[in-house]
Write a structure and sequence with these properties.
About 35% of the residues lie in helices and about 25% in strands. It is α/β, with parallel strands linked by helices. Strand 11 and strand 12 form a beta hairpin. Helix 4 packs across helix 5. Bound molecules: adenosine-5'-diphosphate (ADP).
Length: about 300
């Protein structure tokens, strides 16, 4: 599935003196889950709002399902489901009544899907309860059910796991994976929960101060975030010979500072230390390094800010 679902070209949004989006070029492909990462104020919500037509770009274009003129975009709007900011729910109504209302507003007469969708998001038993008595997590689930009305091909979910308990987070993760893997839906999801985003997304878009800083796939991220053992020794040449000949690995890099990054034997550090010692290698430092999505993100946007 390599169909392009959404393409933005130089998409920009300015509010008076504030640039919320700055020449954003994106290309989202069918069946993938894109994790949108950025600090507060990075432009994530603005981007999603522009895509679903809740605001006009100052500059640039959005092409959805290979269409970009305004009338055609209105038609394509039905193919997008969204949960952006507070889900527009009526608090005095039950979950079921809210679903009904949303079906009516979307012009979809097929009410049978209401129960199906409530079940899908784990709200089957809460269908009759009034939304004002819902927890934040329940509201989020209902928001996702509403976003799924009309079986949209593209889903925009702004902080959908906000307020969910750990089991809710896992349920929503599994649901999103199922929607993309089984139904071929494309999902753009923002979250400040980067470990969770790491588990659910197939691709990551790093947004900073309105600019896309990097787009990378899960595999690319893993490749760049590889765990390794950093080794320092008085005799690096001999160390690499022992790694190759005695420990049978070539999965290492000698760094400019003469340390060695070893991507193997992470679970066999005792044997590694023993073999190096037995071969007369003096190891002056041995440390395990692991880069998480969070570390990677901080690195891309320029590190931690010090107040
Ligand atoms: P995020 O969702 O990543 O937290 P937003 O898209 O909400 O970021 O905001 C991006 C920037 O645009 C922020 O600096 C924010 O203050 C500004 N902004 C967003 N909406 C408006 C608005 N309606 N009027 C003025 N500035 C806005």
């Amino acid at each position: 599935m390599n169909n392009i679902v959404l393409e933005t070209k130089n998409l920009s949004k300015r509010y008076k003196s504030q640039t919320a989006l700055d020449h954003v070029n994106l290309c989202l492909k069918q069946g993938r889950i894109y994790g949108l990462i950025g600090k507060n104020g990075a432009g994530k919500t603005t981007l999603m709002r522009m895509i679903v037509g809740l605001g006009f770009p100052t500059e640039g274009s959005i092409e959805l399902f290979a269409r970009n003129n305004r009338n055609e975009l209105e038609e394509t709007g039905k193919r997008i489901g969204s949960l952006i900011e507070a889900p527009g729910l009526v608090s005095g109504m039950s979950a079921k009544e809210n679903m009904h209302l949303q079906c009516l507003m979307k012009g979809l007469p097929n009410y049978e899907v209401e129960d199906e969708l409530l079940e899908l998001v784990g709200l089957r038993d809460a269908g009759r309860k009034r939304v004002k008595n819902f927890s934040l997590g329940m509201k989020q689930r209902l928001g996702i059910a509403v976003a799924l009305i009309g079986n949209p091909e593209l889903l925009m979910l702004d902080e959908p796991i906000n307020g969910l308990d750990p089991s809710g987070v896992i349920e929503i993760r599994n649901l999103l994976k199922k929607l993309s893997e089984n139904d071929g839906k494309t999902i753009l999801i923002s979250s400040h929960n980067l470990p969770e985003l790491y588990q659910v997304a197939t691709d990551y878009i790093i947004l900073h101060e309105g600019e896309v800083k990097e787009i990378l796939s899960h595999e690319e991220l893993d490749e760049r975030c590889k765990c390794y053992i950093s080794l320092e020794s008085t005799n690096v040449n001999q160390l690499t010979v022992v790694l190759e000949e005695q420990l049978h690995t070539v999965n290492f890099k000698v760094m400019p500072d003469n340390s060695v990054q070893l991507f193997d034997l992470l679970e066999e550090r005792e044997r590694l230390a023993q073999v190096l010692h037995d071969n007369g290698i003096v190891v002056t430092k041995m440390a395990v390094f692991e880069t998480t999505l969070e570390d990677y993100f901080m690195n891309v946007i320029g590190g931690v800010e010090h107040a």
